[in-house]
């Protein structure tokens, strides 16, 4: 994901039930206007396009809290859990001006 000139900031949380694999995702973006998509990708840097969870329902018209509902049946697979533990998952929020990502942030397990 190439860097942009955006000054956007945000935070996010992923909660995973390790027994069932069910997930809950929430994120807050600040100064991101008219988000078009929000996803969780797998990878470590530029050019990574593998998506672990997509369609996280970005808020319209600007920043704000978004309680994301993963697609029906989305579960934290054993591979995604391994990616999570290896710090290989990141949030990515797109806009029309930056369709490859207005803002992104790595997801790391709590220490």
Number of helices: 1
Q: What is the residue-averaged pLDDT? A: 73
Strand content: 35-45%
Distance between the termini: 26 Å
Major sheet strand order: 4-3-6-7
Catalogue the unreliable spans: none
Specify the biggest β-sheet. Answer: 4 strands, antiparallel
Radius of gyration: 13 Å
Return the structural class.
mainly beta
Walkthrough of the structure:
The chain is mainly beta and 111 residues long. The chain is built from 1 helix and 7 strands; from the N terminus they run βββββαββ. The protein has one helix spanning 78-85; strands spanning 9-16, 23-30, 35-42, 51-53, 64-68, 89-95, 103-107. The protein has a 4-stranded antiparallel sheet. Strands 1-2-5 form a 3-stranded antiparallel sheet, with no helix packed on it. The longest helix is centred in the C-terminal third of the chain and has 8 residues, at 78-85. The radius of gyration is 13 Å and the shape is globular. The mean pLDDT is 73.
Secondary structure blueprint with pairings:
Blueprint: E1 9-16, E2 23-30, E3 35-42, E4 51-53, E5 64-68, H1 78-85, E6 89-95, E7 103-107
